[in-house]
Write a structure and sequence with these properties.
DNA repair; 10 helices; DNA polymerase, domain 1; 5 strands
Length: 219
Amino acid sequence: MISFLRGPVAQISLSNAVIDVGGVGMLVQATPKTLGGLRLGVEATLTTAMIVREDSMTLYGFSDADEREVFEILLTVGGIGPRLAMAVLAVLDPETIRVAASTGDGKTFTKVPGIGPKVAGRIVLELAGKLVPHGTAAASGSVAAGESWKPQVVAAMTGLGWSEKDAVTSIDQATADQPEMLAAGNVAEILRTTLRWLGQDGARSGAGRGAAGRQPAGV
C-alpha cells in the first residue's frame, strides 16, 4: 500500500497529476481542489489511497489524511465507487460531508452530479455513525434531547423517496412503543427501526393500510 507520494510535479491535467518519485512518474487521480494546489516543477506531498482491481491499480491523491479518510468511508456505501467518491469530494469539502452524513442531510449529496435522492438516502443511511463532524464533540449518531433527531430522520427518508408527511407518520407509528429509543435520540437506530416497520407493514394485509405503508416511487 502506498500511503503518500513526495516529489516534483511533472504533469498536471484536469483530473490527475504525475509526481516524479525518484525518477519514476506516479500517476495520481485527484480532485480539482487538490490539483489546484500543485505547481509544475515544485515538490508536493500527496496522501494516497490505492484501489487494486483485477485489471488495474489506481492511485488517488488527497491534500491531507482527512480527505482520504472520507474517501475511504464513502467507498463502504453500496454502489459508491472511487469515481463517484471523488466526485463527492470535488463538490463537497470533508467537513460538509461529515455534517451531512451525521445529520441525515441527503439533499446536500444531491448537489453532486450523478447522485439522485435515492443514492443520497442510501449514503446517509449507511454512513450514519461513521462520520462525525470535527467541529462538535457530540457522540456519533446522537443528538440533543427532545425531538431534534426527527428532522434528520425525516430528511433521510425523503431522500429515499417518501414524502415528508408519510415519513413523519411512519416514524411516529414505528416508534410509538419505544420511548427509551426516542429519549436516546439515536438517528441511525430510529431510521433503521422505521424502515424495518415499513417493511413489515408492507407484508401485512391491505386492511387498514395507510399512507405510511406505501413504498416510495421507484423503489
